[in-house]
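Here is one such tokenized protein:
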Amino acid sequence: MANVVVVGVDASPSARKAAEVALDLAGSLGASLHVVTAFEMENAETFGVGSDKVRISNADSSEIVAKSLGASRPGVDITHFAARGKPADSLIKEAIRLDARVIVVGNRRMRGIGRLLGSVANSVAHNAPCDVYIANTYED
């Protein structure tokens, strides 16, 4: 088993909290961190004027989070990957590909009606090829 921690992110604050937990866990384990964004359909917006334009896509979330985490914890090797597909399936595929030690997910949509409809954390926990750490990302 490789010494890799996989974390799933999107552009939400709760995903950022899960990524920070994953970074701490990777640091404690002496592992590398692999930040994954999954998207079923790419959404992009262009900002700026003239030749000073920048295009931001939901597929860029993993890169943005990975770079910002890298600045806060220089001792951990951080990689990123964007995958087309459902979030839980993409995390599991990356964990299998990397022979990951643990997958970190946030607990968003694990309360109330979201619990009945399903969540990424629930799907990953039931199908992961490795340990799963569900980070508390609620504010309350």
